[in-house]
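G., the chain you wanted modeled:
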Amino acid sequence: MIKYSIQFVFFLMICLSANGQGLIEYNFNGCSLMEETGLHDDLLSANLNCDCGVVQGEDSYLLNGIDDFLEFPLSVNAQLVDDFTMSFYFQMENQNQDVDILSLKRVCTNLDSSLTIKYNALTETVDVEMAESFAKLVELKGSLNLNQCWHHFVLGRRGTEYFLYLDDVLVDSELASGAIALADSTTMKISNGNCAEARLMGRIDEFRIYNTFLEGLSLSALDLGLDKILNPDTTVFLGDGVQIVSGQTCSNGFTWSPTNGINNVSIVDPFITPTESTSYSISFDYGFCTSIDTIRIFVLDPNALDCENLLLPKAFTPNGDGLNDLYGISNDFIIEELESFEIFDRWGEKMFTTTDKQVFWDGTFKNTVLNPGMFVYKINYTCVGEKYSKVGNFSILR
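Predicted structure as C-alpha cells:
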C-alpha cells in the first residue's frame, strides 16, 4: 500500500473541502459537536465525553456502550442519495457483542428507507445494509481485523454501485437496481441501540461525507496512518540505517521486536541500523486490543553488489488496472547517483527523462497515451563510486 505523510493528507483534505466536496464534517476537536462546514446543524448527544483522537493533539468522541449516542441532523439523510463517500474512524471495545455502529431505521424489522452499519461478533465482520424497500437494497460485508484497534470505515456510491472499504482495503461492492433514498423523517445515529444490537463502546472520530465518490489518491489520502510505520519496506547498505517515521497513536504503551539495531526502543520513531535483513514490528497496546505494524529492512553488502545488473522489465501494460502500469528500475538500491534515465521512441524522440531513481514512467508523452510499440532506454548511473551506462529496449503492451 502507498503510504502518505500526515502533512500531505491534511493538504489534500483541505483541497477537497475548498472544492466544495466536504459536505459534512464532524471532527470532535475540543470535544465539540459542531458541524465544521456550517452547512448542517450540530450533533445531538446523550453525554459529552471525549478522548485521544486520530489526529495528533485532537479529540475523538468516547461512547460508554450503555446510553451514549450521537444523533445527526435530519438534513444529513439527503446527502446519501446521489454519489457520496462516507468516512469515519472507530474503536470498538465490546468485540464479543453484536454492535450497532451506525443506523437509521424507522422500525427494527422493516427495511423501508434504512441504513445499518453493525458489527457481527459471530463472523467478526462489519455488515452494511442500505435499503429503500425489499426490492431495492444493497448488502455489503467485510472482515474486521481484530488485531488492529482503530478502524477506518468508508462507504461510497458511484452511480448505482455501492462500495465498502475497511481499513483502506476494498472488501465488497454491489450493484443496486437504482439509487437508494433514506427516510426523510428519521434521524441517523451512531450507537443507536434501539434494536437487538448493543450500543458501541469505544470511540468515533473524523466523520465526513463528501458529495462525490472518492477514488485513487483522494481516497488514499483519508488514511491517516494510525498505529502504523509510515516508511515503506526499504533496502540499505551494510552499516547504514533507516529513520523510522510513525503515524499518530493514542496507545499508552508500545513494544519493538526484535530490538537489535534500534537506537532507542522507548520511542515510536527510532533510528534502526540492522546488521542483516530483518523484519521489525511495533505493537501498540490499548488494553482491550493490540495493533501491530511491520517494516522489512533489507541489508546489502556493497562489496557483493553486481553493479552492472540493473534490472528493468522487458514490457509493461499502462492500462490503468493497477498491475504493471509503470516502467522503471526495480533494483534501484544499487544506484548511488542517477545521472540520467531516458526513454526514446523508435525514431529517437525523447519520451521521458529523470534523475530520480524512484520516478517511474507512465507510458504517456505530453499528456498523450502512447500506442503499443518498442522503446529504448538509456541509463547513466554511479554504483560503489564507479560510473556505469546501460542501454536496452522494452515494449508497451495494451
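Confidence is low (pLDDT under 50) at residues 1-20.

Shout if anything looks off.
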